[in-house]
Amino acid sequence: MKNVTVTAPGKLLLMGDHAVVYGRPCLVTAVSERMSVCVEQSPDGQLHFDMPEHVDTRFVSRALETARAHWRLPISDITIRTASQFSGNVGLGSSAAVTVGMIAALREYLGKKDSLKTLFTLSYRTILDVQGKGSGFDAAAALFGGTLYFVTAGKTIEPLSVNNMRLIVGFTGVKADTVTLVREVEEKMKAQPERVNRIYDAIAKLVEEAKPKMVEGDWERVGKLMDFNQEYLRDLGVSSEKLESLIAASKKAGAWGAKLSGAGGGDCMIALVSDDKQPAVQEAITQAGGQVIHISPNAQGARIEP
Ligand code: MEV
């Protein structure tokens, strides 16, 4: 029986959170946790889903609808199996990874030749259909991998050559509701457009400065820029007490910089560290009540597995 398996990575938003929903750039890295999607011909000619783990089935079903419409095919005789290598639902982008995995696996299964840019568009459309709002940075990270400079809706997707970036990830223990947070920020934008746009312009400046500094490996400066970014996110009202305490603990333990990553409200914070400070920062996050999630950045994008 014909079958195709694709895996796609999760992501960490390094800088530019929220601002990237409103036309500004962000920096994102793909991480070593992956989602696997296998598409195979069903022996009984029927459609089957086999999704035993914490996979959001809405994204899988919607991706199938997107693929049907795009390739004008019924695609109704396959079995779709998903498996998650993510350590939990902690905001590392499992929904975008499963969406990209589905779209990429279906292209391969159907023998289509669509470009990566088209796969991005299909994945992003799927995510918007399910959650209503979002910049698409997570789909870009899952598809292209590595570390990217990304502008809203994929207007720019630029791979950056980044080496030796050491990140510690601390989970707050609180699952953030990204859609609700993005809507709350949307309300703030409606109520105080000048203030929020000022914050976003300032964040965009930090991202523009961090981009070459990351390529140069000037981690001390990147850390400072992350700290400034966190101050603006705090101003925007998307940080939380728990995020702040993990961030403060990692800074005290010698991190170059630390901030929330993603929508805020919970999920994860990230700390940028030197090799020698790594153990101390991990210990500090744990002591402050966080859970260290062991990932490495700059992971490979979606790939067909043998
Ligand atoms: C959520 O992980 C990050 C946001 O910037 C939303 C998005 O870019 O889609 C808040």
Protein model, in words:
Helix 1 (about 55-70) packs parallel to helix 2 (about 95-110). The model has no long low-confidence stretch (mean pLDDT about 95). The chain has two domains: about 5-160 and about 300-305, Ribosomal Protein S5, domain 2 (2-Layer Sandwich); about 165-295, 2-Layer Sandwich (Alpha-Beta Plaits), CATH 3.30.70.890. It contains nine helices and eleven strands. Strands 1, 2, 3, 4, 5, 6 and 11 form a seven-stranded mixed β-sheet that branches. Strands 8-9-7-10 form a four-stranded antiparallel β-sheet. It is about 45% helix and about 25% strand. It is an alpha+beta fold. (R)-mevalonate binds next to helix 5.
At a glance:
The protein has nine helices and eleven strands. The chain is α+β, with helices and mostly antiparallel strands and 306 residues long. It folds into two domains: 3-161 and 298-305, Ribosomal Protein S5, domain 2 (2-Layer Sandwich), CATH 3.30.230; 167-293, 2-Layer Sandwich (Alpha-Beta Plaits).
